[in-house]
Amino acid sequence: MARDDERERKSWREIDAERNRSRHVSREPSPGAKASSKRNLSKGQVEAIFDSGKLGELFADKLIDDTTEEGQRAKRQAQLAKADDASFPKLLADFIAEYDTPERLDVLVRGVALDNFSLVRRCVQGLLRAARDGEEIPKKAVLLQQLRSAELLFDDPKLEALTRELSELLR
Fold this sequence. Notes:
With 171 residues, the protein is an all-alpha fold. It has 11 helices and no strands. Helix 6 packs antiparallel against helix 7 (88-99), helix 9 (117-132) packs parallel to helix 11 (157-170) and helix 10 (140-154) packs antiparallel against helix 11 (157-170).
């Protein structure tokens, strides 16, 4: 058996250094630490972000020219998209009264879940038009459920025909 004085002992400097250092954090930076603190995107990735149109949606209400009717319409649609659930039905009804059906698909999808027959019908018609034109409809699974709920809620043969046609196009 080894005796205590045969073991290699640490100096007081080494003991003090261990006491002053957290055991949970290593002194050497991890290889992913630098990569996570600074994100490097390739030129192709940056171009893909710009080409996707997502930046336009994020900054739509800030980049719109308010002086034209088209600019006013776009700004109101951006406000509709950001509206809370309590104010959304009134804002949508006001928009439809002034400008007709919105073009933003996210607004139309959200409008299908309302309990106002005329608003739901207009939103379904707008989505059906977009689906016929080959546009990519967001949140398809959610929309299919909302269409089924609208059929049951309103029990209108014309709305049922519209929702069934839209459902077929989404599948």
